[in-house]
Each structure stands twice: as structure tokens, then as C-alpha cells.
Write a structure and sequence with these properties.
There is one protein chain. The protein has six helices and seven strands. The protein has 178 residues and is an alpha/beta fold. It has a single domain, classed as 3-Layer(aba) Sandwich (Rossmann fold). A seven-stranded mixed β-sheet has the order 3-2-1-4-5-7-6, with helices on both faces. The radius of gyration is 15 Å and the shape is globular. The mean pLDDT is 91.
């Protein structure tokens, strides 16, 4: 995404969030508790990141991961403005998130999975950073739900165990050959 497109997306999110403040209500359905480690993969300008940080509190962590430098800059500015020291921005290199192995209780991939070119490699990285028993919360974004479910199943790394209107909740598979 170009810098200009990122800026337009950010502006659009600000308008949408002002008119329809559903993000805070949505994240409360994710099962996030104080002290957890959460990864917001594809964090964009941080509209979910800050809300996730409020849920994990000072004893938790939120890794804000994105491939776009402007996203990381936007999150860093929010960290400074809001004093949310639990947020750790990470600029991803390809699908390498920069998050330590087995770090995350919950991984959020909201409104971005449709843009992933290699879903299996992406989902493998998410499994690498997931603690045993972790949950992946993913939505279809701009593709049909059945396509998202098929990509997840075909990867062999995650299994859908719960489905809502807004998102899928997945658990890592127990395959030994990952």
C-alpha cells in the first residue's frame, strides 16, 4: 500500500470510528484478559491496538505488527500520546513478525487476511508466535467467509473452532511436522 493510500485509509477509519464506534464493543468479545499477551497483526494505524492495550492492562503486552512503516509510526505516536507502555510496535519483514516464539495468548488478524499472498506461510508464522492453547481471531475482511475457512484449513496450522458474524476463532493444530 502506498503512503498516500495508508493516509486515506487512516482518515477513513477515523470517520467510521467516530460515526460507528463498534471497535471497542467488538474487542470485548475476543476473550482478552488483564495480563495476557496479544498480537495485533496488521495493526494499521492502531485502532484495535489501543483498545487491546486497555484490556491487557499494565501487566500485559500488545505486539502491534504491520508491514507498513507508517503504521508503526502511527502506533508509536499513540503510545506516546496515550502513555500505553504495554504496546510493542514491530515492523514485519515479509511474514516474519519479529514477535518471540510462543509469546501470544491471542492473535488478532482483523481486516487483513484477504490481502495475504501466501496464507500458509502467514498462518505458520502465527502458529510460531502462539503459546500452547492460544486463540487466533481472524475475519474475512473483503472475501467470502468460505474462502477464509478454506485457506485456514488448507494451511494445516489452525482449526476453526468457533464462528460469529464478525470473526472466526481458531486454535493451533497439533501437527508435529510444523
Amino acid at each position: 500500500m502506498s503512503d498516500q493510500a495508508f493516509r486515506m485509509m487512516t482518515f477513513t477509519f477515523q470517520i467510521v470510528d467516530f460515526l460507528f464506534p463498534y471497535v471497542s464493543r467488538r474487542v470485548r468479545k475476543f476473550g482478552i484478559q488483564s495480563g495476557m499477551t496479544v498480537v495485533d497483526y496488521g495493526c494499521g494505524p492502531g485502532r484495535y491496538t489501543t483498545r487491546l492495550a486497555n484490556l491487557v492492562g499494565d501487566s500485559g503486552k500488545v505486539y502491534a505488527v504491520d508491514i507498513h512503516e507508517l503504521a508503526i509510526t502511527a502506533v508509536e505516536l499513540k503510545v506516546q500520546e496515550l502513555g500505553l507502555c504495554s504496546i510493542i510496535p514491530r515492523l514485519a519483514a515479509g511474514y516474519d513478525s519479529g514477535v518471540p516464539d510462543s509469546a501470544a495468548n491471542i492473535i488478532c488478524a482483523i481486516d487483513m487476511f484477504f490481502a495475504i499472498k501466501n496464507p500458509t506461510a502467514f498462518l505458520r508464522e502465527l502458529k510460531r508466535i502462539a503459546k500452547p492453547g492460544a486463540v487466533l481471531i481472524i475475519d474475512s475482511g473483503h472475501e467470502r467467509r468460505e474462502i477464509t475457512r478454506r485457506k485456514i484449513a488448507d494451511s494445516g496450522h489452525w482449526t476453526v473452532w468457533q464462528e460469529t458474524r464478525d470473526h472466526l476463532k481458531c486454535k493451533p493444530t497439533n501437527r508435529e511436522d510444523d
